[in-house]
């Protein structure tokens, strides 16, 4: 660029022209994966023009990934821009910083000037987690580090200052290695095992304690503050002990509550016995992984605060198929909580160790084996169309490994469960010849030549998906993963001709689409004697009453506290029960369940944690849904279903539909609870609509879809008729 043009560009920026700022362009570069060719060319032009006039300070004021991505855009390197965006969403913001030189290694091979990769003050972010227990003295355990720089106890230090109205004290800090804390650090590159510490404060908690933590790492000083809340006069100490079956929580006769989505871990007087296995809808299963809050009407505290001197791995209660670790108060958490984890060795936990384990397995990969790897909803389920396909593979003599997030997921008979992220899982996936999934595998997987992948997907779509979404909010990691997935699929399953025309272009899939009906509906169609229906109702404590299943989908834009997807309900389930006498089963979509909380009202049963939607459909007399694909599955029963859609216009603008349901409804389209009640009380006259809907969308769901799909994918079994 000549000097005249450079001067003009700088003058226009100084004069307040419309030339985008580095910050604005960096934001566009983060989502460049959504741009069409014309949009990319505009970004390249603006980035190249800006790069010619921006000062070094302007460049370095951006976060490191933004400045490197913007530089790549300025030289038309779209692959690098999209790789950086994918890395941000899949692996988080962490990177490795070389001690001394402060040179940043992003973990990706990106061509960029060295000066862009020198860590700036704003790149070196301090991270701090703490726990506090005890009324007097107070024990505090923490992990603190500067992200990207491996903590070295021989050269680095942690200093604590605790301030109350009585003044400030500086207690002695004892460092103690904690591999669990490193695994939970979120660091993909730096090892923070040695960044953990504990200290004793000879104070009492009748008033708040402001804790100032000063971290000195590689000569860099970072200070963070956090306030430990006071304990009220009614504080009760909680003892958490191991028993033969699980854990016992004792609090001197105080009623305790353990927040959980299970039926077994809920409420009881102290001592409260929490078994590792509990009954959920008539079946015994291991408690799901997660953090469970222990609460009561009085403030709680750990009975033995000195336990915080121990690393978390040593605090864990080792049970069959899971580990339970007591945790004291930490910011944003209950006074006391129980963290339930799968028994994956600590050496294999966390982003950094997973990266090393994955590299090891790939490096020593052997030939593919005549085995299958199955996955359903990211390992959280064991049903959908994947289950009948897996059972069919076993009948064909092909062993099946099923990836599960935890042992609360009960896999089909004859199938071996393997824990997600375990060494066993990495080995099984890497060597399986056959892959079956209804969504995507973890973003870090790489498919091997010769693997045969059947993508069953998880429903006929009414709402737009993939590339067809009206307002695209998909992350770079998900977009890149689905692009890799579509290339790896050998075949894609569609329930009907309509789905066969919609799904492939939405995913950019150009391979074979199998249209033989949906295997997940075989059990629903074949339940002619009502055995599945009766078994499910018995497990739910239902008799012969009318049962309404309310199963809404999630909303992209609806968010609650902490950014979680909010549960959007347009049905007053309790009023439906009161006015009609029907029992209402409420099933939140898995994407929104975490932000919903408990549902406990007369005549209303929360079935969100039920493992089998097909069984719930069999148990229901009436389905109330909105834009969920369950409408296409329930259609095979030709029972009454209603679409409760007061926000149809809003949803149309936000997500978009493939067709107008009002033109081809599966039943009454309503906008309020009162209208739902009216249909239930006054009778339904939508029989013709239900028949037409089934003929269009479920003509092949006759109970034999799984066998036909397997024959289409792998060929008929030799000797079979």
UniProtKB/TrEMBL annotation:
Membrane as UniProt keyword: yes
GO molecular function per UniProt: CDP-glycerol glycerophosphotransferase activity
Main localization, broad class: membrane
Listed SUPFAM superfamilies: UDP-Glycosyltransferase/glycogen phosphorylase
Compartment list: Cell membrane
InterPro entries according to UniProt: Glycerophosphate_synth, TagF_C, TagF_N, Teichoic_Acid_Biosynth
GO biological process: teichoic acid biosynthetic process
GO cellular component: plasma membrane
Membrane topology field: Peripheral membrane protein
Domain of life where this protein originates: Bacteria
Signal sequence residues: none
Chain segments carrying region Disordered: 164-189
Keyword annotations of the record: Cell membrane, Membrane, Teichoic acid biosynthesis, Transferase
Family, similarity comment: Belongs to the CDP-glycerol glycerophosphotransferase family.
Name listed for the protein in its UniProt record: Glycosyl transferase
Source organism per UniProt: Aeromicrobium flavum
